User: Fold DUF3243 domain-containing protein from Fervidibacillus halotolerans.
Amino acid sequence: MSVLDNWEQWKDFLGDRLNQAQEQGLSQNVINDLAYQIGDYLAKQVEPKNEQERVLADLWSVANEQEQHAIANLMVKLVQNNETN
Assistant:
C-alpha cells in the first residue's frame, strides 16, 4: 500500500518529511518551494488515489503558478497544524 492511497497516511508522511527538513535547517521558503515542486510532479505524473487528492489535482490543473504556490503552501500549513493538534 502506497502512502498516496490513504489521505491520513499521506499527511503523516508529509509531516515526517517536513520535520526532517526543519531538523536539517531548511528555511520555510525552501520548504514551500519543495512543496510546490512535489505538488507539480504529483499533478503531472501521479494519478490521484482518493477523493482529497482528486480535489487537489483538479484545483492544481486550473490554477496559475502563483495559485499553485498558494496550494502548496496551504498543504504545508495543513501538515504543520496537524502536528500541533
User: Anything to note?
Assistant: The mean pLDDT is 89. Residues 3-84 form a domain with the Cytochrome Bc1 Complex; Chain D, domain 2 fold (CATH 1.10.760.20). The CA atoms of residues 19 and 64 lie 28 Å apart. The first helix runs from residue 7 to 23.
